[in-house]
Each structure stands twice: as structure tokens, then as C-alpha cells.
Amino acid sequence: MDEVKRVWEAVRPTLHDAGIRLWAYEGSSSEADPQQTLMSNGFAYLTPTRGEAWVSRLQMFNCHNELTCGGSTIGGLNVVIRVAAIGDEGKRHLEILRKLAQGTTGLWTENHVVPLWKEVQFDDIVFMVSPYVGHSMEQCYGRWANNSVGDIVDMILQALEAIVFVHGLGIVHRDLCKSNYLVQWHPESLSTMRVPLCRPRAFLTDFETAHEFPPDMPTEERLLSGLPVEDYQRPVPPEMDSGALYDPFKADVWQFAESFSDVKTTVPSIDAILEDMFALDVSLRLSASDARDRLAEVVHSTPPISLLIPPLLLNPLPIF
């Protein structure tokens, strides 16, 4: 870990020259300078129910791996700095991000990919700088966030819109789970027992294992085989583990649904859609667009107050 810290310290001057202040790197987290003036970057908020005591959470970044660290721009906007490529390794990852997270594509309302604000070169390493987004979607239930079914389902609907957009460009994520989505804030409607007047935007991130198909490749030929990477640790659908060619677009849907398999909304029509996304039989499994449309139809025909209910946790975790 000391070696990792030395590497981040070595790149600090280069990042500073690019207008980025690197936060203090301390093992599994990095923290902002306590003297830094707080300023909204438009991607991270707190609800009044949490109060000012939680402001410090937006000044700290939990590093999921050694390749990421928190920081801020010279102007005071909080960001995340991440190693995108080292030499040729990660080049495809960076190319996909440039396509999804920059330029005109990044302006479309249905594009939920975290923006790529800047690239910084240090020797043969390319760092990408993206806005710091408030919270992980992984915390939307079973942890500290007191979210209602309506809060959670809205996140799921946005997450589906996100992957439909990505799939439409011939790109599969191959690591699609709720922990790879971020949200500006958690509404925690069960704390106020009021339907929120506005909803947090959800963002999709972590495209290291993504694959892009040529735009002229026929749909029926867009197949892959094997795991995303060697020693891949997340749950995978049967077809991905079979060694045979499979539809990676449907595999994305299964992985996303699997990450919500430990919760029930207790709304039969909504739970049925999630179950159809989780079907082991690929021919019965919903596509991302079909899941989005079916879920939107149910949600839009349901009074919001009806979803102001707690989710049913199938494997409750200790709250922290």
C-alpha cells in the first residue's frame, strides 16, 4: 500500500499542472483538504434529513481499487481520478469512454454514463478525470439509505435506460450490477413519508470489461464467449460460464437483475419484471429495452403514493 501511495504522490505535480488537486491518499480512502471551500459540482447532494453532519461524506472517496483516488479542480469541484490505460493495456476501455462520455453523445438525456471531463498523461499512463458522484446505487437498500420502493424502482428504471442507450451503440458492459451505478443522492422517502418532488439522476460507470461490436456487424453475430476477465468473481449467467458463444446483451440484463435478487418490492407486477430479467433461459429473458418499457408502463400507471412502502429484504445485512 505504501508503494501505491508513492505512485499517487509521484503523479501529484502532473495532476496539479492539469488543474487537479489530488486528495490525501490513505489506503482504502482519500480525503479532501478540510480547508477546501465546499462547492456543488452538480453530481453529489445530501437530503435535509441527514443534515450537515453528513457533509464530510462528500469530502471523502472510498477507493474501490488502487487505480482510483479523489480530488478536486482548482475551482473547487470534486472529482475522481482513475487510471484508464497503461500503454496498450486499457486502450479499448479508454476508447469506449471517449465515445460514450464526451462530445455530443454525452449530452443526450438518455445517456447516463459518468462524463469524462479530462484526460491527463503521465509517462505511458492515461488518467481520466470525472465528476465525483454522491453515492453508490449499491446502498439503495439494506444499508443506511431509508429508501422506499418508489425510490428504488426509479433507480432501476434509470439504470435500464442507461444500458439501453449503451447497447444501442453496440457496446456491452459485461460487469453490470448495481454497485457499478452511482446516484446523486438517496431520497430516503421513508424518512419523510412523502413522495419526492424530484429524483436523483443515476449514472453508469466502470467500463473496464466492456466490449464494442463493429456498427456494421449483424445483430445475430454479436456474440461472445467466456468470462469478462480471467478469475472474474461476480455471479454470471449460465451461458457465460458454458464456454459456448452467447448473447452478451442478455447477459448484461441477467447480471443487473441478479444484483437485485436479494430484494422484493412486494408489487407483483414489478417483481415479475425483475424475475423475467433474471430468467436462466436466454430465450425467455427480457432484453434491456423490453424491461425498461414494461417497468415504465407499470410505474407510470401506479400512483406514486402506492410505492411509498419499504422493500422486503431477503438477506438483510447489518446497517452501517
UniProtKB/TrEMBL annotation:
SUPFAM superfamilies: Protein kinase-like (PK-like) (SSF56112). It comes from the Eukaryota. Gene3D superfamilies: Transferase(Phosphotransferase) domain 1. InterPro entries: Kinase-like_dom_sf, Prot_kinase_dom, Tyr_kinase_AS. Residues 32-320 form the Protein kinase domain. Signal peptide: none annotated. PROSITE patterns: PROTEIN_KINASE_DOM, PROTEIN_KINASE_TYR. This is Kinase-like domain-containing protein. The lineage of its organism: Eukaryota, Fungi, Dikarya, Basidiomycota, Agaricomycotina.
